[in-house]
Every structure is written in structure tokens, then in C-alpha cells.
């Protein structure tokens, strides 16, 4: 569903308020909640995505200052009083449409875990800096490899995931025998680590830590001069990346394959905006590239 219109009352001139949120909480009737949130989001003229499952809600949406505040207030009324919730700003509409979807999981790991009952130890950004400065701590980036491309923490292990579903198998292969080690995990907003740390606790790991609020909260709170973060953080909206202070970054995304692109990628002869980049050029046929090229021309003309 397309967004109805741009926000008419904004927190700063021509800016959108972007809210990233989640909470694990038992939902007795996910379909009914999905209907409530669909109607509310349409009424508030929000864009973005909300996911609803029996285990809770997850999503990132954008709208005017008043609309985002109204959404937050309504979620509190619906019992989501322990939301992990962060706001940032975008100078442009960050999502093309609104999607409110029913899912089996609000973040798909593919194996049963109990994040409401068994999870790692939460760390504030300052506590995270202190712990991860120790070279004996194994720091694991639980995001997909295209996200890691844009930036990550100093010394972090990149599992090279194409999907979070691959994480359990990676743990079995690469962390077997490390049950006595201290493991520190992070992700964009914290939700994947709710499940990844729960998984490790379930497998017998005892000292498992979790950056509360994820990279977004870290970049919001930690001054650049005290930061252990390198690069920018990939986000799933039109900004592509954000930096310290959650200011929009300099990232650009390939709209064919979704990879964040470096300056070197953009200069490559295999890069064509909306059509291909060095990461996907060899994976699509000329007929597919022609279709992507037509789509990009329609987008440039404002028809999409």
C-alpha cells in the first residue's frame, strides 16, 4: 500500500521521523492485532513495515512527528510497555509504501528459541566498549554480509551470512568448543541478538552478551572519538546508511541486489544505477538488465 501523503507537520523542515521498534511478547490473536495496526498506520499516513507474529511485533516506520508519537502512544495502550524503541530523522521519505504483515517469526531464525525466557546479558554502549576492548572476547556480527560491508565493530567476526537462518549452522561449525569463552553479539537494532544469544544460551554457552539497542543506539549515544565502530551502519530504508548521531550517511544501494556500494563500486564499469553493480552484474541476464533499466527509467520519471 502506497503512503498516502508526505507528513505536513514535521520535527524539522522537510524531515521524516523514523521509528525502529520491537518487543517480544505473547500475542493471542496476531491477525486481530495486525488489523488494528493496519488501520492505525493508514490513519496516521505512515510508511514502512510492521511485522506481527505470535511472539511479538517488529518494524521500522516513518511519518510526521505527531503521527509517530501517536503510534508510540497507541502501542503502549496495547500493552507494548517494554518496547525497544529508537527514533532518527530522514530528510526524504524513506519508504515508498506501508506494509503490515503477519509472520511466523518477527525475525526469522528458523529454529525454536525462547528470547523472553533465556537471553544474553544486555550491555549499554559504554559497557560494550569496555568488554569488547578485551582481545579474548569473541565479538560476532549477526547481520547479513551485505550489511557488514557498510561498517562493523573493530575486531568483529563476520560469519558471512546471506540470511539469519544460516546463523545456527554457523554457530555449530565455528563456535563449537568455545562454550567457555565470552561471546559478545550485535546487530542493527538488537532484535536478531535477542534470538542469537538465546540460541547460544540454549546450547550451553554461559557468558553471552548483547549490545542493547544495537548499533543504532550505540551510534546515537557514543561520541565518534570514543567509538569502536568503523564505517557506517546499513539501514533498510531510503537513507541506505547512517553514521554517528544517526545522521544520514553517504551510502548508496544497488537496487538490483541490495548491496551497499563503495566509491570503488560506483566507479566500476559494471555499475549502472538501478540495473547492476560489481556484486550482481554476472548474476543477471541481459533480458533482466533490460527490465531493470526500464524500471529505473520509470522511477526517474516519477511513475514508481
Automatic annotation (TrEMBL):
It comes from Deinococcus deserti (strain DSM 17065 / CIP 109153 / LMG 22923 / VCD115). This is tRNA uridine(34) hydroxylase. PROSITE patterns: RHODANESE_3. Gene3D superfamilies: 3.30.70.100, Rhodanese-like domain (3.40.250.10). GO terms for molecular function: oxidoreductase activity, acting on paired donors, with incorporation or reduction of molecular oxygen. Residues 133-227 form the Rhodanese domain. The gene is trhO. Pfam families: Rhodanese, UPF0176_N. CDD domains: RHOD_YceA (cd01518). Keywords: Oxidoreductase, tRNA processing. Its EC number is 1.14.-.-. Catalyzes oxygen-dependent 5-hydroxyuridine (ho5U) modification at position 34 in tRNAs. Belongs to the TrhO family. GO terms for biological process: tRNA modification. InterPro entries: Rhodanese-like_dom (IPR001763), Rhodanese-like_dom_sf (IPR036873), TrhO (IPR020936), TRHO_N (IPR040503).
